[in-house]
Amino acid sequence: APVSFAEDEIVSMADSTTTIDDIEGELFKIERIREILVRRESELRYMMDDIQLCKEISRLKKELQKLIALPENEKSNEEKQREEELVQQIHKLVETRDFLVDDVEFERLREREEDREMAEFLQSKLSKSYLQKASKWLMTPVKEKKMTSRGQQTSAPYMTKTGLTLLKECCGFTCSIM
């Protein structure tokens, strides 16, 4: 014989005051936190790469400055050759850093577009009560990130979403060939 249950015999694991909207809201918060953490991880990786590039550029520039300070007629052929090598290495690293800055700007625009699309989705698809709960998390201030152009490499590009500088000046030097 089929087993029958009275409606009140089946008890959900959810607290009696918990609604589906509450659960969906909580899941949305978790998804938002996950997205923020992924974005932050990406920012930190860019920071690491930038710090390493800046340190190397600064080291090479210091070495180059010492060679430039020598009177031209006193430089050995090896010193003149090293000077040329340093200029080329610095140029290559500055170019690499330019690509890094472009990547950061691309990520910034992609994230802004994702946020816009999510906001539109919430407005069109979700109930008003859920939208009110979710919008608090979706619209958690993600501050505008500012970037400098390549012509302004003396000041560093910033991502202020987290209130921290993403790309810092190269240890007091500008990122350009002297």
From TrEMBL:
<feature type="domain" description="BMERB">
    <location>
        <begin position="1"/>
        <end position="120"/>
    </location>
</feature>
<dbReference type="InterPro" id="IPR022735">
    <property type="entry name" value="bMERB_dom"/>
</dbReference>
<dbReference type="Pfam" id="PF12130">
    <property type="entry name" value="bMERB_dom"/>
</dbReference>
<protein>
    <recommendedName>
        <fullName>BMERB domain-containing protein</fullName>
    </recommendedName>
</protein>
<dbReference type="InterPro" id="IPR040127">
    <property type="entry name" value="BMERB"/>
</dbReference>
